[in-house]
Amino acid sequence: MKLVIAIDSFKGSMTSKEAGIAAAQGIRKVFPDADICIRPLADGGEGTVTAITEGMDGSFRTVTVIGPDGKPAHCRYGILPASHTAVIEMSGAAGITLVHGKEKNPLHTTTYGVGQVILDAISQGCRKFIVGIGGSATNDGGVGMLQALGFDFLDASGDPIPYGAQGLSLLKTIDNAHVLPELKECTFRIACDVSNPLCGPEGCSAIFGPQKGADNEMIALMDPWLAHFASLAGKIYPDADPDYPGCGAAGGLGFAFRTFLNASLESGIKIVLEETHMEDYIKDADIILTGEGRLDAQTVMGKAPQGVAQMAKKYGKPVLAFSGCVTPDAVICNQSGIDAFFPILRSPVSLEEAMDSENAKANMSASVEQVFRVIKTFIISAQ
Q1: Alpha helices (runs of H) in 237-356, residue ranges in sequence order
Q2: In this structure, are residues 40 and 322 in contact, taking their beta carbons and an 8 Å threshold?
């Protein structure tokens, strides 16, 4: 029996790799000689750096950068030496979890640290980038990141504009004469699962601004500032399109990546599946195991297990999913490629007990074992 295990992290309790190892232990109690391949899985959000870096035998590096509030932040990213690839989560340098209280103010928060992480990766020889841009604390249009990479954003006096969205109110000139030369050698794949434009009623200020600390007055100010920024960018980069789906991601960071760095904005799970060569493993397997911390109706809307299931169905492979909990509306997963799913909790417990890493691993192993005991009985009866 040949199996592929690709399970997303159970946030707070198991990484993707840990979940896969626990599932494999359960299988081996029933099929000791099974050919099991554990592959990393993430959807471009939290856990992507850990999943891809561990799964592709990469290494981790931590760099101290300017955080969203201007204070030092420590951002860990992954390096895949074989392909000279850096795997980055922007939230590690400019995420909403890095700011608290009055510091949560998009007029001042900056993406400068994201650019510093990219600079560090370039110094380590990376020329290919996978960047997840969810969970930002910023609304600066990605200007902070671009400033760190050598782009000049100047006011009427020819001085650099200050950090944050408020700096855009002073923007008069954009100059790329001092951009880091190595950027021409770099390619960027951006995990972006929102389709919002840069500006307007569905833009980043109106839709995501409130969760970053913006009130109605701030939103009314930031939206035209971003539109002005996009207009100036279009004079240098004719392909600049603030209405392109995803340009409003991470407070306009999607626009900055696409316009200034020629990046592609793509589905997070699509990037992960391609970069980890998942199809090469799935097509020859007998059974596919996947899962995530919570299985519900949202799972079929571009989340990691759904991506695995769709790929498996391309080759007619059965798919089993395991999760920490299952909601009633998760039945839709059965219509979308997941043949059967199972919650791993085995008794009533507190949230703290359920989230305990050792408990989660034991529950995963025991649940998978029992499912494969059923599979074994069918195999025996068929003989």
Answers
A1: 253-260, 268-275, 278-282, 304-314, 351-355
A2: no
